[in-house]
Amino acid sequence: MSGLYIHLPFCRRKCLYCGFMSLDVYDEALIGRYFDALLADLAHTGKTAFDTMYIGGGTPSAVPAGLLDKFLESLFRSVSIAGEFTVEANPESLSADFLKAIKTHGTNRLSMGCQSTDDDVLRLLGRLHDRRAVFSAYDLTRKHLPDADINLDLIFDIPQAPPEAARRSMEEICALKPEHISAYSYSFDTGYLSEKGEVTDSMFLEVKYFLGSRGYAKYEISNFSQKGHESGHNINYWELGDFTGIGASAWSLQNHPDKRIHRGKTKDVNIYLAEPSSYDEISVTEQADLVKEAVVFGLRMTEGVDITALSAFYNLRDFELEEKISRLCGEGLLEWKKGKIALTEKGELLGDSVSEFLW
């Protein structure tokens, strides 16, 4: 399986907590030049067929719809997408023109950054939308993309926000009946709202059980879906399938029999515009670490890692994995499921520590 990721870094305003590469800019000339660079970048890869495509940001819905439509028209002259085609959007910038543009070019999945339906929480996060915008944007999407899957993002443990606000947000988001919900723990990486609030673990479990009771099965650490509506593009990431990333800060991964190559683009838009086909960072996972990487990423998936399949290609004893897996099972952090190892509920709460120990 192969995926294409396209990064559009443009936002109306960067959110206070956001750690992704984005720009507070609304310059149509710059956006037009950036789209030209993306097309040159993709042409340089020589790839024309992908299983999935994901346009993220930034805020793709903040880009003028006419420019986005023109870019997608040019893109699909040379590229074909076999399956899932996702575009990100935010409630405050999602418009009928934007939806018409992406529908014209075959978008069948939209991911919306709601984060909360509580106005006080949204102000705390520095979001540009309010709760009414969440519901109106959702209804508008259903109107213009009636056959598309919709994902709604939720942050469930925001510092200084009461747990009741997250509970109400979950209830209201589930009432909309999106096909997919991504529920994230707040990231402290940016330093914003650095004082931790109430215990995250209990809320993590509450989210899992609440969404499960509403028909959303947990298939990855932070992702829940109705049956058959999992994100194929994201699963490809976690299964370490090939993917191509174009745009400033985008990453690509290419598998080889004896190694895995990761390539990253510059985060500087001006440098990217000048040299869109160049890479700022390249790292190689050699054969000795291939199996470890497969296990660590695979454990993000609820169904776990197929150890039997890995054993057919690697001697796990060479990587000290058998002993480590046995120890983690003994500590109640891993469990066996039909030939696969998976995180237990306790292990999910300590997922980073489990990964560090296995590596």
UniProtKB/TrEMBL annotation:
Extent of the signal sequence: none
Any one of the GO BP annotations: porphyrin-containing compound biosynthetic process
InterPro entries membership: Coproporphyrinogen-III_oxidase, Elp3/MiaA/NifB-like_rSAM, HemN_C, HemW-like, rSAM, rSAM_horseshoe, rSAM_sf
UniProt key word Metal-binding: yes
Single GO cellular component term: cytoplasm
Location in the cell: Cytoplasm
Coiled coil: none
Keywords, comma-separated and alphabetical: 4Fe-4S, Chaperone, Cytoplasm, Heme, Iron, Iron-sulfur, Metal-binding, S-adenosyl-L-methionine
Domain of life: Bacteria
Radical SAM core domain boundaries: 1-234
Alphabetized GO MF terms: 4 iron, 4 sulfur cluster binding; coproporphyrinogen oxidase activity; metal ion binding
Function noted in UniProt: Probably acts as a heme chaperone, transferring heme to an unknown acceptor. Binds one molecule of heme per monomer, possibly covalently. Binds 1 [4Fe-4S] cluster. The cluster is coordinated with 3 cysteines and an exchangeable S-adenosyl-L-methionine.
Protein family according to the UniProt entry: Belongs to the anaerobic coproporphyrinogen-III oxidase family. HemW subfamily.
Identification of the protein by name: Heme chaperone HemW
UniProt source species: Geovibrio thiophilus
Lineage of origin: Bacteria, Pseudomonadati, Deferribacterota, Deferribacteres, Deferribacterales
